[in-house]
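Email to the structure team, subject: C2H2-type domain-containing protein model.

Hi all, the expression group asked for a predicted structure before they design truncation constructs. Nothing fancy, just the tokens so they can compare against earlier work. One-line instruction: predict C2H2-type domain-containing protein, return tokens.
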Amino acid sequence: MCICELVNVNMEFPCVFCSKKFGNRNNLTRHVRINHRSTTTFRCYYCNLETKFKSCLSRHITLQHISKQKPPKANLNLIECPLCKTFSCASREKMISHYVNTHDVTVEEQRLEFDDFGKFLIWKEAIEEVDVCQYSDRYGPKDRREVVTRYYRCFRDGFFRKRSKGLRQVKSIKVNGVCPASIKTVKNKVTGVICVTYVHTHVGHSQEVGRMNLSKSERAKIAGKLASGIPDDTISDSVRDTMKSDGVKRHHLTTRKDVWNVERSFNLRLTERGFIRGNDQKSVEVKLVQEESEQNQLNEKKMRIRKRFDELMEDVQNDKHAEILWKALLPIGATIRAHSS
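Reply from the structure team: attached below.
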């Protein structure tokens, strides 16, 4: 006979004080301790409700008294419409619907396809130049099973989050609202084809070139000039001198601060070949050390050249040898003078 057949699955444990029955001994023991032997009760100091369970009293006070006394929390993340200043909502989609239904803003989606990510970046840079706008990837790639999705938003979209201590006035490019302009890319991992959904409608701001940032290609060009040793003042002046009559572009408004930011981001300030600003004492000292090192290297090269020339002079035995050496030295001297002028 199986042991499990000896166990009474319907075994019940009745209470000796009342008619209640329990399926296990632990529940019976708890019932007797609380309902028949315990004389402790917990009373609510708001309404004098009595209960034998402390947990029940805490829940009663929280639900019936404390939560009703507190005012409802205000939604601090409401988005205000920049056009009418009277409508507010908590989601981007509702605000865009408000633009369309109330203010007759046309929000249309354009769908494009690109063979690779490089062609998409070329198109994106051209669109940014035409729209006088920049689209930033704020959230990074979203990797799915078969595709990789990216969301680009207008650089003026969103809210300014103040992080300073209020010691100085901080300006922001954010419109503190929703700008519908966006780019969504979906890249197929197998084919590499990129499907683009593009919304070109901007709301809440105008086309202001001065609020844009330098593009990656423009920053790379400035970094190349800095690495070659061109001073920052010369770079900013030369860029502004290239302004044409077809309109002002962002790189035409390059300031000394832009150059300094590029210098810092590319880590060119204290590099061996990078331009070092000569305004502070530390930079001047480093620059003097570099110039002294370059002069020592030049002196060593001169010594090796002189030694090699003395060896050639010992090989000169007649007029023919002297004529050959003289003809060889003539173009070298002309080349050196040409590079010195």
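The longest strand covers residues 147-154. Confidence is low (pLDDT under 50) at residues 1-8, 270-284. Ping us if the truncation boundaries need rechecking.
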